[in-house]
Design a protein that fits this description.
Length: 345
């Protein structure tokens, strides 16, 4: 099969995406597929895409990425490289890859691709939209308020946060992943609160300030219609941040999680409902905080979760006997079946 693996891009999560792209490319090539690497930061230049895979330390700075145009994504998908592609395996994270843009471009060319479609991708990427949908569906999610740059001028902002969200908060950009721009802090220091708000606003025009749920962190992956075993994430400090996610040895993972069976099953049922509410397809990962009373609070749904061979979705798949190369092929098969159904309808 001719497979385009799309990775990298111009989002702040570029380096994570490159690592995932490299893992997927190696896995698919090991199964005998012809794989064409596509890094939209370089348009359709497959030679530069291969170079990006060789040296993972040479990433553009945030400033350089900000100057790059999304037109590069259009150039990539419209190029003749895609004329002979059977399917695109998307390993992009963040803006332009996880938010529906690349999916829309592939739809215009009628090229099958892995994962969720345009609408579900956009909804899941927008934390406010997804949290509203979760709450409307009766899913427990931490209390939150939205803050914009204009709100920073309000004298009552920090008072409102204290009154509505308790003693500890999470500050996160509305449309970033991989914990980029995220802070966890108590509400004792006004200067630290304002600093966290200003930092998150560097990455998004709107940010979510959310109640912090004391307890354990768990995650549930979906593969097609199958729900995979629950994983508990135990970082060596309180917050499973960017460094912990992508640095070996900084976090302990329990798969399956050592939690009561009824709680695990309830979290899995919430993951299924969140998938249905968003319309996610192919594979996904729902992240939770498990309160001290054992209640799972749904934080977010990732439609393109981290995807190196040691990431959480592959870890859960391995627990049920699916190795990484076979996992990649199963995700492709799910996508091809979806595309076939869409054509028939």
């Amino acid at each position: 099969m001719n497979i385009a693996v799309i990775f990298g891009g111009i989002s702040t999560e570029r380096n994570v995406s490159i690592a995932g792209g490299k893992s997927v490319i190696e896995a698919l090539r090991s199964k005998g597929h012809k794989v064409i690497p596509i890094d939209p930061a370089f348009g359709a230049d497959t030679h530069k895409a291969e170079e990006a895979l060789i040296d993972l330390t040479k990433f553009p700075t945030l400033e350089e990425l900000a100057l790059m145009s999304t037109k590069r994504y259009i150039d990539a998908v419209q190029s003749e490289v895609f004329d002979t592609i059977d399917i695109a395996f998307i390993v992009l994270h963040g803006k332009n890859g996880e938010d529906g843009l690349i999916q829309a471009l592939l739809d215009l060319r009628c090229i099958p691709y892995t994962g969720s479609g345009v609408k579900a991708s956009a909804l899941a990427m927008d934390k406010l939209s997804s949290k509203n949908l979760f709450a409307a569906a009766g899913l427990l999610t931490p209390a939150w308020i939205i803050v914009t740059k204009e709100d920073l001028e309000s004298d009552s902002l920090i008072k409102d946060i204290r009154n509505n969200l308790g003693k500890k908060i999470v500050v996160k950009p509305n449309n970033q992943g991989s914990s980029v721009g995220v802070s966890i802090l108590d509400l004792s220091d006004n200067d630290l609160i304002r600093e966290a708000l200003e930092n998150a606003l560097k990455y998004s025009d709107r940010i979510i300030v959310e109640q912090f749920i004391e307890g354990r962190e768990i995650t549930v992956a979906m593969l097609g219609d199958k729900v995979l075993p629950v994983i508990e994430i135990i970082p060596n400090n309180e917050f499973y941040d960017y460094k912990h996610k992508y640095t070996k040895g900084n976090t302990i993972y329990e798969c399956p999680a050592k939690i009561p069976e009824d709680i695990a099953e309830f979290a899995q049922s919430m993951a299924i409902i969140s998938n249905n509410v968003i319309g996610a397809e192919g594979f996904s990962r729902a992240d939770f905080r498990l309160s001290e009373d054992g209640e799972p609070f749904l934080l977010e749904l990732n439609t393109i979760p981290g995807f190196t061979s040691s990431s959480l979705v592959p870890m859960a798949a391995k627990e049920v006997g699916i190795e990484f190369p076979e996992l990649c092929e199963e995700i492709i098969q799910i996508a091809l079946e979806k595309f076939k159904e869409q054509k028939e309808n």
